[in-house]
Amino acid sequence: MVSVGYTLMCEQTGPKELVQQAIRAEEAGFDHLVISDHYYPWLASQGHSPYAWSVLGAVAHATSRIKLMSFVTCPIRRYHPAVVAQKAATIGVMSDGRFTLSLGAGENLNEHVVGAWPHVHQRHEMFEEALQIIRPLLDGDNLSYSGNHFEVPEAYLWDRPETPVPIAVAASGPHSVQLAAEYADAVVCDNPDAGVIQLYDEAGGAGKPRYGQVAVCYGPDADDCRKTVHEQWRWAALNWTVKSELPGPESFVGASETIRPEDIAQTVPCGPDLDAHVAAFQKYIDAGFTDVALVQVGVESQPMFLDWARDELLPRLREL
Question: Any idea where the Luciferase-like domain is (predicted)?
Fold first, then answer.
C-alpha cells in the first residue's frame, strides 16, 4: 500500500499553525508528514518561511505515530553537512525513530543568504561530499574528513536514535540517481517521472522507498481554487534549471508573470471533484512511487482540506 503524506508547507504557514496542522494530519489518518526547508517563500504572496527544524522538533514532540521527513534539506551552503547530521539525529531521537532526512542540491533562493551561489558543477561536487560526511555520522562513526569543499577535523554524534536515520536523496537525472543509489536509503522526485524511477532501480535502488509530492487545491469553488493556485503556486510551472538559479521571491514573480491561471490549473486539480484529486495521486502510483505527500495550496483552506481528506480522500486513496 502506498504511504499517503501531508505537506507542512513553511512558505504559506507560520510555525505555530504548522504544528497544529501536523497534529490534525495525524488525527486525520495520514501516514507521513513532509516539511519544506526554506529561508524564503517562492512568492511574496505566500507570506511565510519559518525555520523548518524548530518546527520539526515541536512536531516530533506533539505527535506520536506519523512519520516525519524534511523535503528537502540542502547541506552545501546554508548548513554545514556535519550540522545537518546532528539536527537529523536529534529529530530522530525526539520522534522515536520516525524521521527520514531528505537531501538535495538546493536552490539559490534559500542558499544565497550566506554567500554566492556556486556553479552547478561545483554544487554537485559539494553535495556528494556532504553525503560522504552525513552518512557515516548518522551511522555512528567518529569521522575525520578532508575534501575539496568541506573539512571535518573530528566529529561524532552523541545523541542518535537506536536505528540510524534513513537518508533520501532528491534526483532528476542519471547523476543524482547514482548518488541516491550509492549513499541513500530512498529517492525523492518532485514529479511522477517513471524514467527516474527506472534509472534508480537500475542503479541499485530496486525495493527502496520512492518519495513524491502532488499539489492539489481542494475547495467548494473551482474558480476560487484556480485563483489561489495561480497566486501562490504558479512558480511550480517553471523548469527546475530556472528555479534553482533565481535569487528571490521578486525573481519568481517576474519569471512566472506570463503563466495564466488556466496554465497552472492543468497540473493542479482545483475544486471539489474527488476523482480529479485521486487521478493526480494515481499518476505517482503508476510511475512506481511508494510514498506520496499531498500539498494543499492555500493556507486558509487547510482545516477544510484535512476534514475532507479524513472523510473522503484518504478512504479513496487507500483503495488504489
Answer: 13-290
Please give the Cα distance from 191 to 175 (Å, whole number).
Answer: 17
Which whole-number Å values give the CA distances from 53 to 89, 166, 249, 307, in the listed order?
Answer: 12, 17, 22, 26
- Residues, the chain: 320
107: annotated active-site residue: yes
d(CA 19, CA 117) in angstroms, rounded, equals 31
Homologous superfamily of 3-318: Luciferase-like domain (3.20.20.30)
Residue 23: how many other CB atoms lie within 10 Å: 14
Question: Which listed residue (26, 32, 38, 128) is catalytic?
Answer: 38
Please list the rounded mean pLDDT of every run of 10 residues in the chain (320 residues).
96 98 98 98 96 98 98 98 98 98 97 96 97 98 98 98 98 95 97 96 97 98 96 94 95 96 93 98 98 97 98 96
Three-state secondary-structure class, residue 251: helix
pLDDT digits (tens, 9 = 90+) for 22-33: 999 999 999 999
* pLDDT the model gives residue 240: 87
Average pLDDT, the chain: 97
Q: What is the grid cell recorded at 281?
A: 495521486
Domain positions in the chain are 3-318
3-class DSSP state of 292: strand
What is the per-residue pLDDT for 100? 98
Question: 63 phi and psi, to 5 degrees?
Answer: -120, 170
Catalytic residue among 107, 111, 128, 129: 107
* Percent helix, percent strand, percent coil in the chain, to nearest 5: 45, 15, 40
The contacts of residue 42 (CB under 8 Å, 6+ apart) are: 11, 109, 235, 236, 249, 252
Pairwise CA distance, residues 218 & 229, whole Å: 10
